[in-house]
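Q: Give me the 3D complex with nicotinamide-adenine-dinucleotide.
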Amino acid sequence: MKVFVTGGAGFIGSHLCENLLNRGDEVTAYDNLSLGRKEFLKPLLSRPSFSFVENDLLKDVDLAQRLKGYDLVFHLAANSDISLGSSRTDLDLKQSVMATYNLLEAMRGAGVGRLIFSSTSAIYGEAELKPTPETYGPLVPISFYGAGKLSAESLICAYAHHYGIRSWIYRFANVVGAHLTHGAIHDFLQRLKADPSVLKVLGDGRQRKSYLHVTDCIEGMLFGFHTAKDEVNLFNLASRGVTEVRWIAEQVVAQVNASARIEYGSEDRGWSGDVPYSWLDSGKLANLGWKAKVESSVAVEMSVREALQWQNRS
Ligand SMILES: NC(=O)c1ccc[n+]([C@@H]2O[C@H](COP(=O)([O-])OP(=O)(O)OC[C@H]3O[C@@H](n4cnc5c(N)ncnc54)[C@H](O)[C@@H]3O)[C@@H](O)[C@H]2O)c1
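A: Here is the predicted complex, encoded as structure tokens.
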């Protein structure tokens, strides 16, 4: 297959490109490098079936032309820093909604008929039902990021209906592994790098979330793609269990500098728009035959090691 990956130089995108190449696909990574790093793609650049395009979904007038002949688009490009939304209220509107609209229009123009989209647990807001299934509603996101992703999901559904762009929408839990560009593990490692004596945690550390290893994230997306054949296929994508932020802080400190002091804030969340407790029900994918191999806390443990290895190598 010829596959186009927006956000291909980002955390998940760079792993996805490698996985697809190893499966024998021809892959183009497309990224404006605002958050991603070309360095993540370095081992792939010399492979004949791989190409990299540096461009921006908000500015690229040649996108439809560029997409001609592709069989499938993975759309991962977005702002991935949830906390930024409250100070830059048009960020997710542009990077999630407008960027997705531009991509869908270009796919329509180019006749590309299949799309895989990276949505998020944030679209559920502070859901009362946990674990939260795909059928939960009403959907009341509390962040601009969640609002942007939910709007992008809606646009994708309308394009699927009107123009036959078959879609697979995945609402991810927190994804972790090497090449992190954001999130608790990345943030803790950066803070300890700046000051190895103390780790300041945003919020009281009692936030609980489900963490999904990036390998499982990619396998889950591909499983759903090959198995579910509706016009719009919508899935939660998560592992088993939830992990407390305090435990993550302790894991990172133990690996980096066991004598560092951990300081917690007093709020129940890290920032305005943060959902302190999220737990996705991934029973829909499980009923089709797929489960994450690695449970939440093991994914965190593995990722702290992988992120450190990456940090020390570069
Ligand atoms: N990592 C997670 O925990 C998680 C959870 C839920 C959903 N997601 C979603 O999965 C996707 C990938 O996440 P990630 O963790 O790899 O984040 P990331 O920030 O590492 O990757 C996003 C990539 O998109 C690129 N990008 C942003 N705006 C662009 C634009 N206008 N044009 C071209 N490229 C652009 C960035 O440079 C970056 O490389 C994102 O859409 C994110 O919202 C991630």
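A quick observation: The first helix runs from residue 11 to 22.
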